[in-house]
Amino acid sequence: MSREAATTAGLLIIAREAMEQFVDVHVDDDGALSFRHAGVPCAIQGVELVEGLAVLSLTCVVAWDLEDTDTPRRVAERAGQGLFGTLGAVATEQGWDVTLRYAFPAEGLAVGPLGTLLMLVVSTAAQVRTDLVGTD
To answer: Which domain of life does this protein belong to (predicted)?
Structure first.
């Protein structure tokens, strides 16, 4: 195993342990993690951007196929309120898809603090989902 693979694999192990405190986590064939929280599907991937800079990338699919033409404005307003991550809205043939993405250097973070950080992002995604579509 290359040093890069060892670094990102190690980060994903810690991220799995951190998230298992809160949700059921599935480990995908490529090592990425996937889970759901409050109706929001999420995925965590590990990447070494350059030697010595390993990051975790968390993507939450906040909403999909929204027919509301006001979605981009609502997403922009919510993004302006300050949150962990970047909200995005993309138009598709079925409507608007909204994601929340957050990438950060994670090497050296222990399970507890990493879980807290990840859950801040995931909880934000769940709140944005509630704001956009209500509760499931």
So the answer is: Bacteria
